[in-house]
Amino acid sequence: MQKITIEVEGMHCGMCETHVNDVVRRVEGVKKVTSSHMKGRTVVIAEDGADPEAMRAAIAAKGYGVGEMQSAPYEKRGLFSRRK
Fold first, then answer.
1. 65 within some domain
2. Among the four residues 4, 68, 69, 79, which has the most C-beta atoms within 10 Å?
3. Could you give the count of Cα atoms lying within 13 Å of 30 in the half-sphere of its Cβ?
4. From edge to edge, which strands make up the β-sheet containing 2-9?
5. How far is it, in rounded angstroms, from Cα 77 to Cα 36?
6. Does a structural domain hold residue 78?
7. Which tens digits make up the pLDDT trace of 52-67?
8. Cα dihedral value 48, 49, 52, 58, nearest 10
């Protein structure tokens, strides 16, 4: 799993966040999407094979500007995550 942080320009309200979330969720391999118009970014949790450029294209097709993208390994954390 990977965590991809995408800078998105042009989100001004909660409805903009919903539009971005909807198009990114349609990209194959995406598991979870969270957007913040206040921070100007979208955080995506996706499988390792997911295509970040497809996410960029989907957001740009909705009319939003896409800035820098950062990817990092993601490990699910939860109540029992420390047990092995």
1. yes
2. 4
3. 23
4. 30-36, 41-46, 2-9, 65-73
5. 21
6. no
7. 999 999 999 999 999 9
8. -130
Contacts (Cβ under 8 Å, ≥6 apart) of 6:
41, 42, 43, 44, 52, 55, 56, 59, 66, 67, 68, 69
Is the CB of residue 2 less than 8 Å from the CB of residue 71?
yes
Tokens 């198009």 sit on residue: 23
Domain of 39, CATH number, reads 3.30.70.100
Domain residues for 10?
Answer: 2-73
Query: What is the gyration radius of the CA atoms in the chain, in angstroms?
Result: 13
In the block, tokens 């118009």 appear at 37
pTM strictly above 0.90: no
Residue 3 corresponds to which tokens in the numbers above? 């965590």
Structure tokens at 80: 């029992």
Give the DSSP letter string of 17-49: HHHHHHHHHTSTTEEEEEEETTTTEEEEEE-TT
